[in-house]
C-alpha cells in the first residue's frame, strides 16, 4: 500500500448538524488522501506505516471559507463604519485597482495565502480582483501553499469607477484564459465570478453564464445582501422578476454548482427555489454587521434544508479566521432570539458543521472525517491547564471562541501535511 497517512489524537467532527462525533485518543487512517477509517487501535495491516502522534491535542476538519476577497485582505478592519455601497466606493475599489500592478499583487497575495494557511482555512471560494494577471498570481500563491480553493477573476463592466471595470470583451477573454490555464487537475480551480448584478451588463452576465455551462465551471457572486443594493438591482434590471432572476436567466444560478454570498432577504418562494436548485449560501455574519446589511435568518434556512457554509467575507468581515465566523453565526442567531423568543438560536455544533462540512460540500467530500472524505485536518493545541481540566468538546468550544492561529500546530490537505 502506498500513500498512507496516519495521525493520532483526540478526534472531533460533525457528521450531522446536531452533534459532535468524538473519538478520544484514536487514529485516522487515509489512503491517497481519502479517509479509510477511525480506529481506537491501529489495525495490523497499517502497523508498518509511520504514525504522527499528536498526543492529547485535538484533531478537527480544516475550516472552509465559502466567501472571501483576497484582494481586500490588506484593508481588513479599515473603513468599518461605512455602509456597503459607500464602503465599496470609498475604500474597496481603490485597493482592488492596485492589483493591476504585478509586484503589488505578488506581495499582497503572498501575505493572504500565508494567513489563510496559518488560520487553518484549507478550502475557500475566493474573489480576486478584475485584473487577469493579478488573479493568475493568486492561483500560483495558493498552489504553492498546497491549499484547496476556487479562485475567480472578478468580472465587472459597468457602474463602478473606470479604473476598475473592463470592457465586456476583455473581462470575458481574461476569464477564458484563466479557465484554460487552470481547469485541469489541481487543488486550485477556476470559478466564474460576476462581482454582483449591479456591476454587470446583461451582455456580460450572458457570456459568463455561457462560459460556466460550456466548461462546467462553478459560479459565485453576491445576492440580496443589503436593502439599498437590492433597490439598485431593481432599478437597473426592471425586466427581471428578482435579483435571483438576474443570475438565473443568464445560467448563473445552479446551472453549474453555485454559491451566493449573503442572501439575507429571501422571500418564501426564493428560499424554495434556492433549495430546489441546490445553490449554496455563504453566510457571512461579521460582514453583515460591519457594512450594516442585516441579520440572515440562519435557523430558518437550516430548517428549510438550504445548503449553507460560512464566509469571512474579508474585508467586509474584519477577521479571516473561520472560528470568528462560527462564533458570530451563533451570536447573531441569539440576537434574533432576543428579538423574537420563538426564533431558536443555533447550537455550537450547527455553527461548527456549517463552517466545516456545510461549506466543504461545495468541494466534494471534505469538512468531515467520515470514510471517503478528504483528510483535511487541523491539529489544535490548547493550554495544559485547560486540557487537563475540561472535556474535549469544552476544549474545542474554547478554542473556537478564544483561540487563533497560534493554537494550530499542524495542517493537512488530502492527507499531506502542508504546515
Ligand atoms: N457586493 C459587491 N461587491 C462586494 C464586496 O466586495 N463585498 C461585499 N460584502 N459585498 C459586495
Ligand atoms: Fe463579498
* Uncertain runs: none
Mean pLDDT over the full residue set: 98
Named CATH architecture of the largest domain: Alpha-Beta Barrel
What is the number of domains?
Answer: 2
| Proportion of residues in β-strands | 15-25%
Question: How many helices?
Answer: 14
Q: Mind summarizing the main beta sheet?
A: 7 strands, mixed
The ligands bound in this entry are:
guanine, fe (iii) ion
- What name goes with the CATH superfamily of the largest domain? Metal-dependent hydrolases
What is the number of beta strands?
A: 17
Distance between the termini: 25 Å
Please tell me what the overall shape is: globular
Helix fraction by DSSP (H/I, runs of at least 4) = 25-40%
Topology-level CATH name of the largest domain: TIM Barrel
Descriptive overview:
One of its GO terms (molecular function) is guanine deaminase activity. Its EC number is 3.5.4.3. The protein has 419 residues and is of the alpha/beta class. The chain folds into 2 domains: 4-61 and 368-417, Urease, subunit C, domain 1, CATH 2.30.40; 63-363, TIM Barrel, CATH 3.20.20.140. Helices cover 38% and strands 22% of the residues. The longest helix has 18 residues, at 322-339. The mean pLDDT is 98. Bound molecules: guanine (GUN) and fe (iii) ion. Guanine binds at residues 69, 84, 88, 92, 195-196, 222, 225, 287, 291, 313, 316.
Amino acid at each position: 500500500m502506498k500513500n498512507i497517512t496516519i495521525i493520532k489524537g483526540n478526534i472531533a467532527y460533525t457528521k450531522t448538524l446536531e452533534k459532535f462525533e468524538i473519538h478520544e485518543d484514536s487514529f485516522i487512517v487515509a489512503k491517497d488522501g481519502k479517509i479509510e477509517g477511525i480506529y481506537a487501535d491501529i489495525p495490523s495491516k497499517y502497523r508498518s506505516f509511520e504514525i504522527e502522534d499528536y498526543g492529547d491535542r485535538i484533531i478537527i476538519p480544516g475550516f472552509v471559507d465559502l466567501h472571501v476577497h483576497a484582494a481586500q485582505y490588506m484593508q481588513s478592519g479599515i473603513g468599518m463604519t461605512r455602509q456597503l455601497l459607500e464602503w465599496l466606493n470609498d475604500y474597496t475599489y481603490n485597493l482592488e485597482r492596485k492589483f493591476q500592478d504585478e509586484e503589488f499583487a505578488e506581495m499582497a497575495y503572498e501575505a493572504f495565502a500565508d494567513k489563510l494557511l496559518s488560520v487553518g482555512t484549507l478550502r475557500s471560494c475566493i474573489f480576486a480582483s478584475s485584473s487577469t494577471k493579478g488573479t493568475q498570481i493568486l492561483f500560483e500563491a495558493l498552489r504553492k501553499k498546497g491549499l484547496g480553493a476556487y479562485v475567480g477573476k472578478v468580472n465587472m463592466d459597468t457602474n463602478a469607477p473606470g479604473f476598475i471595470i473592463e470592457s465586456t470583451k476583455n473581462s470575458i477573454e481574461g476569464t477564458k484564459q484563466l479557465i484554460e490555464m487552470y481547469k485541469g487537475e489541481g487543488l486550485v480551480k477556476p470559478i466564474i465570478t460576476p462581482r454582483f448584478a449591479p456591476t454587470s451588463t446583461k451582455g456580460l452576465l450572458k457570456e459568463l453564464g455561457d462560459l460556466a455551462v460550456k466548461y462546467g465551471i462553478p459560479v459565485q457572486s453576491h445576492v440580496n445582501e443589503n436593502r439599498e443594493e437590492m433597490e439598485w438591482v431593481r432599478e437597473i434590471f426592471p425586466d427581471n422578476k428578482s435579483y435571483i432572476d438576474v443570475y438565473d436567466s443568464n445560467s448563473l444560478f445552479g446551472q453549474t454548482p453555485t454559491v451566493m454570498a449573503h442572501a439575507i432577504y429571501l422571500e418564501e418562494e426564493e428560499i424554495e427555489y434556492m433549495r430546489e436548485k441546490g445553490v449554496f449560501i455563504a453566510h457571512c455574519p461579521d460582514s453583515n454587521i460591519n457594512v450594516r446589511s442585516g441579520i440572515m435568518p440562519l435557523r430558518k434556512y437550516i430548517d428549510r434544508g438550504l445548503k449553507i457554509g460560512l464566509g469571512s467575507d474579508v474585508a467586509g468581515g474584519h477577521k479571516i479566521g473561520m472560528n470568528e465566523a462560527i462564533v458570530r453565526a451563533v451570536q447573531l442567531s441569539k440576537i434574533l432570539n432576543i428579538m423574537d423568543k420563538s426564533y431558536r438560536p443555533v447550537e455550537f455544533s450547527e455553527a461548527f458543521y456549517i463552517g466545516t462540512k456545510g461549506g466543504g460540500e461545495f468541494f466534494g467530500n471534505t469538512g468531515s472525517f467520515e470514510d471517503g472524505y478528504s483528510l483535511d485536518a487541523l491539529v489544535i493545541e490548547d493550554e495544559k491547564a485547560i486540557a487537563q481540566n475540561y472535556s474535549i468538546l469544552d476544549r474545542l468550544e474554547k478554542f473556537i471562541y478564544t483561540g487563533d492561529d497560534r493554537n494550530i500546530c499542524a495542517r493537512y490537505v488530502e492527507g499531506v501535511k502542508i504546515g
